[in-house]
Amino acid sequence: MPHYYSALREPIELELATDDIGVRFGGKRGPAAARRAFRAIAPGPRAARAFKVPPVRQFHRFMIMHDSGAAEAQVASIVSALPRKLVSRVERPLPVFIEKHSRLRLVATEEVVASNRA
Amino acid sequence: MSPSTHRKLLDGLGLAVTRTSEFDSQTKVVVPVALKHGARALDLANRLVEAEDVVDHAAPNFLAEFRKTTVNDPLFKQQWHLHNTGQNGGRANEDVRAAGAWALGGGGDPHIVIAIIDDGVDLKHPDLASNIWRNPDRSAKDRHGRDFVDDRDPWNPEPKVFNPPYNDTNTNDIHGTPCAGVAAAVGNNRKGVAGIAHACRILPVKVFAANFAPNNRLADGIRYAGLKADVLSCSWSAAPHPDIESAIRDATERGRHGHGTPVFVATGNEYASQIAFPSNHARAFAVGASNDRGRRSVYSNYGKGLAFVGPSSDDERGRQGITTTDVRGRSYGYALKSAYCDNFGGTSSAAPLAAGIAALVLSANARLTWDEVGDILKETADKIDPKHGAYREGCSAQYGYGRLNAEAAVARAQQSARRRRRSAARTAKRRRR
Q1: Residue A1 at interface with chain B, using a CB cutoff of 8 Å
Q2: CB of A104 less than 8 A from some CB of B
Q3: How large a percentage of chain B has pLDDT more than 90?
């Protein structure tokens, strides 16, 4: 099972979120592209009420899409959802995990936070 | 451990430092130099953890989902959590004894600052504006707090993200403003509501955009708050992460010039018999919720590590919510067309209430350490619902040390301040002889 470690080096277990996929928009205009993509596919006020989990969320240059089987379909999910102009701005898909106990979603970007011993 | 040793380790794994925390020079964000196909942050982080003589902790910097857990002031009569007269079928006196606390020490000391670590605070709200912290350094960029998730506007910690449906906590920045109101809405201003520490100051620290944030930004938000504020309030839960653990430890070790900044965290609203991260941190005070009849709110997580409970809403039919400030704006917030809402609650409301009571305690005695503040709150809590609470040596899995009692806590803090002054006077007298 995928996992990472707490400050006390205890393993924290993850499951792959099969219905979620992260998207990273590359380049200097990545954040702007992500905002445009979000506005293009986010549901309107009335439709939004019908969703238990928002179908799309955006933070900075990242977007998280929620759709049945999104993790397996990956590229197909992204291409089918986005306007064509914005597909070319996608740098890579990112896996989304669910932490075992909290059931909260975690998008694995390429970054790691490390703290050195003094 | 020399910097070259760290560098060798990173080079060996094909990693490069992109930035260092401005609050902790040992904490760095690293990325793969060349992203190989299939390279995973998980694997790289775990390889770093293996080098335990060099690395203290390492984990992917996830983009993480967080769970936000909910006087002559005209709406004061609705604020049963401060003064319960039996409004709307509640039971009289099931409250935190705010009136008694205020009689002893007023609404707190304006030099005591409560950090609301959340999705922003409406800085111009008429019932919050004059209690918003102002940086004494007029040349500093963080005049009224800081936004750790908006690189375009980092010095403005106001709510910014609004997406339909506009009363949904997860898609909107509407959570921090009610929390701020519970802690320190201005009192005695003939407007709206009063916070429990209605004369103390609020430091808004924005760490979410709606309910997502990278782990390192939230951790740095905690570190910043620990340096600037006297009390921290966190009304959210998260997947465990070592950078957040480390930040909470830093706040209690380095805050308040070494006295430590107490950190209050909501236990969560998942109906669970264990409390959520980071309320289960050894140095955090985990705050659950009790209702207007003096019983644990049914949703409030409980169990090992619970410190105390504060009055809040309940899911049971007829139980009252919390009246507090709401984000202004016709279409946003818990009450879509008002600057106040009466349906706030959850352990989200209990945590800033606890933080506000801690602020009153520090107003009475500013020399207390972070754990002395916690001890006072625990020792003076009311042992409610003894039948179901099953208190053993003063502690209960359902209620921790009991329901917070602001009046008793302030009285105890004043007593300890008097004792300290007398002891100092005696010592000075002896030295003069």
Answers
A1: no
A2: yes
A3: 69
Residues of B in contact with A37 (CB under 8 A): none
Would you please indicate which residues of B are annotated as catalytic (active-site) residues? 118, 175, 348
CA angle, B135 then B140 then B145, to 5°: 50
Q: How many CA atoms lie within 13 A of A35 on its CB side?
A: 6
Residue B110 has pLDDT above 80, yes or no: yes
Which residue, B132, B110, B133, B154, is CA-closest to B325? B132
Residue among A42, A43, A107 minimizing CB distance to B62? A107
State the DSSP H helix or E strand holding residue A85, giving kind and residue range, or none if neither.
helix A84-87
The position carrying tokens 């910043």 is: B224
Residue with tokens 């992500």: A34
How much is the average pLDDT of B21-48? Answer: 80
Query: Do B346 and B269 contact (CB within 8 A), yes or no?
Result: yes
CB of B209 closer than 8 Å to CB of B149: yes
Give the least confident one: B70-74, B177-181, B227-231: B70-74
pLDDT at B37 over 60: no
- Say if CB B206 and CB B157 are below 8 A apart: yes
Mean pLDDT of A21-28: 91
User: What is the DSSP-derived secondary structure letter of residue A14?
Assistant: E
Q: Which two tokens stand for residue B403?
A: 């329901």
Q: How many CA atoms lie within 13 A of B246 on its CB side?
A: 30
Give B115's strand partners.
B203, B232
Tell me which chain B residues have a C-beta less than 8 angstroms from the C-beta of A17: none
**How does pLDDT run across A46-75, given as a tens digit for each residue?**
777 777 778 889 999 999 998 888 888 777
What's the CA gap between B123 and A25, in Å, rounded? 32
Query: How many whole angstroms separate alpha carbon A38 and alpha carbon B174?
Result: 20
**A41 in B contact zone (CB under 8 Å):** no
How close A80 comes to chain B (CA, Å)? 23
pTM: 0.90
B-chain residues within 8 Å CB-CB of A48?
A: 163-165, 168, 171
- In angstroms, what separates the C-alpha of A100 from chain B's closest C-alpha? 9
What average pLDDT score do residues B334-349 get? 88
Distance from CA of B265 to the nearest CA of A (A): 15
Q: What angle do CA B214, A63, B61 make, to 5 degrees?
A: 20
- Do B245 and A6 lie within an 8 Å CB cutoff? yes
Say whether residue B327 is in contact with chain A using an 8 A CB cutoff: no
The answer to whether A50 faces chain B, any CB pair under 8 Å, is no
CA B296 – CA B348 distance, rounded (Å): 14
Nearest by Cα to B324 from B99, B70, B92: B70
